[in-house]
């Protein structure tokens, strides 16, 4: 085929950014009585008024960002991530100038321009969430224009299926559903003293008795601990309950604390973190400072697919496992192509959680869910990320770039 026959892809003609409430990519935005908002330890737990509910301090204040890119031929690529109205402003008023009139095949140059043009006020958090949402929409559009699933464009599957551990309040049910492990949210932090520590350990012991000795059990500490508490919890949870890993125990900025925790953790217990870290530079810091055994970037928060390729390659070169934070199809298409990503996270979004429901429900139609804790690679064989926006959800477009 001559170059002429493969003339460039249709250019991006329209950029639209919407916000949506109620679950989906901002998966903490749930109704009353959901396990994900039930006295979970956070850095705000030191304030009793913010201890019972993470929504009380605003964990769901942003909502979902939907990025839609329409090409000249009418093809639409889209993606969802956490960002809401402020992220819509960044996409429409700043990032759109690097997209309109450009080919989606230029994702490297577009990413570079989005990141370095916003570096003076971005670098991590909301701005890189917005960049990630745009980047994921570019990859979705590219796949739809080329008629290829994203995982094909990333090098193809290195295994026939994905296997998952489940995050939620019921690892005992997760075991029955075929998951390879269960990650519990930690409920009590340092402010609740030894009484809280004993409650954390008795819950873990109860789950160990229900799940047996071989089922993976993990604790997700959501940045809530100090180094002393994390080290004591790590040793007791390993000695008494065979904890597999302690996740995000400290502030994402405390690289020094993580390095000390990993150094002092019991041999055999894994230290993990990364879901609130961003870019190749942030993850290089985690790995160069020996902060953790597994990095857990969220592809909707760390910079998107284009940046995760760089992060995952650096981790692979150092023999570090890269297990992305739960981000639905956006991580499935990536994980299936990486040797250093042997399993993935499935966030149980049912309120119990007593059943498997799509992670980003109700926003994505066609979102695959694990059956017996697994998803076949063939379930991803649709162009782009293989999902479409649920037409029933109310999209709000607060700004415009035209
Ligand atoms: C369960 C945890 O508290 C968070 O809500 C969760 O989203 C995240 O930390 C995870 O690793 O899934
Ligand atoms: Mg986590």
Automatic annotation (TrEMBL):
Mg(2+) binds at residues 220, 247, 275. This is L-rhamnonate dehydratase. The record marks 298 as: Increases basicity of active site His. Binds 1 Mg(2+) ion per subunit. The active site is at residue 325. SMART domains: MR_MLE (SM00922). Its cofactor is Mg(2+). PANTHER family: ENOLASE SUPERFAMILY, MANDELATE RACEMASE, MITOCHONDRIAL ENOLASE SUPERFAMILY MEMBER 1. The record marks 345 as: Transition state stabilizer. Belongs to the mandelate racemase/muconate lactonizing enzyme family. RhamD subfamily. The keyword Ligase does not apply. HAMAP family: Rhamnon_dehydrat (MF_01288). NCBIfam families: PRK15440.1 (NF011968). GO terms for biological process: carbohydrate catabolic process. Reaction proceeds via a syn dehydration. Substrate binds at residues 28, 54, 345. It is an enzyme of class 4 (lyase). Catalyzes the dehydration of L-rhamnonate to 2-keto-3-deoxy-L-rhamnonate (KDR). It catalyses: L-rhamnonate = 2-dehydro-3-deoxy-L-rhamnonate + H2O. The gene is rhmD. Keywords: Lyase, Magnesium, Metal-binding.
